[in-house]
Write a structure and sequence with these properties.
three-stranded antiparallel β-sheet; 1 helix; 27% helix; alpha+beta
Length: 60
């Protein structure tokens, strides 16, 4: 059986620094720490405009 590619959700803001993006990444990861679900995979991506975007996966 072929493994499906993850589906990504992008955070609604662009960030000027990697530090700002990492703060949001930590906040997203912490929301799942105390829950019953397995936490998402969270990534910080650098865009061509030298801004950063945060994206995370979800399971269906």
């Amino acid at each position: 059986m072929k493994k499906a590619a993850p589906k990504w959700i992008y955070y609604k803001r662009l960030f000027h620094s990697r530090f700002q993006a990492s703060c949001i990444k930590a906040k997203i990861e912490d929301n799942w720490t105390n829950g019953y679900e397995i936490g998402p995979l969270v990534e910080i991506r650098k865009l061509k405009t030298n801004k950063y975007v945060v994206r995370y996966t979800y399971d269906e």
